[in-house]
Amino acid sequence: MKEIAQIVDYLALLVRLELDEEQKKVLAAQLDNILDAARRVQELDTSGVEPTAHVVSSRGTLREDEVKPSLSLEEVMQNVPLKEGSLFRVPSMSGSGGPNGPGGPAPEQIHASEEAGDRQEGKG
Amino acid sequence: MDLFRLSALQLSGLMREGEVSSEEVVNSFLQRIEQVEPQVKAFLLLCPEEALAAAREVDRRRLRGDELNFLAGVPVAVKDNICTRGLRTTCASRILENYVPPYDATVVSAIRRAGLPILGKTNMDEFAMGSSTENSAFFSTRNPWDTRRVPGGSSGGSAAAVAAGEAPLALGSDTGGSVRQPAAFCGVTGLRPTYGRVSRYGLIAFASSLDQVGTHSRDAAGGLALFRLIAGHDPLDATSINTPLEEDVEADNFCENGLKGLRLGLISEQMGDGFAPEVKEKIRQTAALLEGEGAFVEEVSLPLTDYALAAYYLINPAEASSNLGRYDGVRYGLSERISGGGVREMFAHTRGKGFGMEVKRRIILGSYALSAGYYDAYYLQALKVRTLIKKEMEKAFERFDVLFGPSTPTTPFMLGEKVDDPLQMYLSDVCNITDALTGNPSLSIPCGLSPAGMPVGMQLSAPPLNEMLLFRVAAAIENMRPLPPLPEQVNILEGGQC
Question: What is the CATH number of domain B3-261+471-491?
Answer without folding.
Answer: 3.90.1300.10
